[in-house]
Amino acid sequence: MSQNATSGFTHFDPSGRARMVEVTEKPDTVRQAVARGEILLQPHTFALVRAQAEGTSAAGADGTPGLAKGDVLGVAQVAGIMAAKRTWELIPMCHPLPLTGAAVRFEFDEDRHAIVITATVTTVGKTGVEMEALTAVAVAALTIYDMCKAVDKTMRIGNIRLIEKRGGKSGDFVAEEQAGARPAGEPLP
């Protein structure tokens, strides 16, 4: 790889070989990232997960079995947080970071039979937590798939993206879909 091919990519050395970015001299600052993604389900599966989350029923209205593996969103929430904490073990060039906060929330999109997953991750350190937030969303979605696959093998995971990030040398970032949704400087959810 030539120098031109690696220009702008921080995980390559001048000869094009992969490297972990050197952050020793960078100051510790508060870093926060929010990522979002979704999993689309069949209407029946969506209704089962929603009913379970609301504590109304674990079985389908037509008498079909419920979700045998247990609390879908509770397990997915824990899985997402655990994944954020272990991102450095999954993504080769990520630094191990001492996270100071990690949260995963779910919203039901009734029109699309989708569960929208949002992860917020925080640290005080030399590098950002974007990968940790993205990993939390991906693993939470995969966990929902695992918990529901007995009743729905057609689920689709997608649209995983960074929504916001705060702190660090490159400054703040707010995705266009979020622009105007939160006043500048207001804490992330």
Biggest sheet statistics: 5 strands, antiparallel
The CATH architecture would be: 2-Layer Sandwich
H-E order:
HEHHHEEHEE
Helicity level: 25-40%
User: What is the topology, as strand order, of the major beta sheet?
Assistant: 2-3-1-4-5
**What distance separates the N and C termini?**
41 Å
Roughly what fraction of the amino acids lie in strands? 25-35%
When the domains are counted, the total is: 1
User: Number of helical segments?
Assistant: 5
Total beta strands: 5
Shape: elongated
Query: What is the CATH H-level superfamily?
Result: Molybdopterin cofactor biosynthesis C (MoaC) domain
Label the structural class.
alpha+beta
CATH topology description: Alpha-Beta Plaits
CATH class: Alpha Beta
The averaged pLDDT comes out at 85
Q: What is the rounded Rg?
A: 19 Å
**Poorly predicted parts:** 1-6
Explained architecture:
The chain is an alpha+beta fold and 189 residues long. It has a single domain, classed as 2-Layer Sandwich (Alpha-Beta Plaits). Helices cover 28% and strands 25% of the residues. It is built from five helices and five strands; from the N terminus they run αβαααββαββ. It has a five-stranded antiparallel sheet with strand order 2-3-1-4-5, covered by helices on one side. A hairpin with a 6-residue loop joins strand 4 and strand 5. The radius of gyration is 19 Å and the shape is elongated. The N terminus is likely disordered.
